[in-house]
Amino acid sequence: RVxxxxxxxxxxxxxxxxxxxxxxxxxxxERGIAQLEGLYKSFREAGDQVASLExxxxxxxALIRIGQYxxxxxxxxxxxxxxxxxxxxxxxxxxxxxxxxQWGLGDAEAAWSEAKDGLSAAxxxxxxxxxxxxxxxxxxxxxxxxxxxxxxxxxxxxELLRRLGIEPEPAKLVQAIQS
Length: 179
Prior knowledge:
Elements lengths: L1 H4 L3 H17 L3 H17 L3 H17 L3 H15 L7 H14 L3 H18 L2 H18 L5 H13 L6 H9 L1
Helix pairs in contact: 2-3, 3-4, 4-5, 4-6, 5-6, 6-7, 6-8, 7-8, 8-9
């Protein structure tokens, strides 16, 4: 409301995106998903394919959390295709949600492949946050599939978390990743 009253329309979409993320993080998934769906539609109608892709990544992530894997995969694929060359910046994030959706659909091989591609994209683009999310996801993939956790993933994840000011205890880190 403050943004609207101040006529700061350029920032309104970003504020709405943050509020939707907050709703999802605090367990109000339905409300957050509805907000993201509205934002996605608004950005698409306005022809802002890059903003649409960013919202589609968050929306796909939220859909994965509630088990709508196919819908999440279709959404992120369409948004990435629509964004064309501008989607390169989001390669790591799209690979991450694609990997999670593939895992949910039971395609472990595709999930691992997407996670590997996403990690390479994050490192190549110098995106430590996405790198941390992807390493966390790879540790979880290994754990859930009964594989050994890659030592490099675990070590680098701890380094990235420290850079973010987080000093997790090893046991608590593994527990948090698995939840």
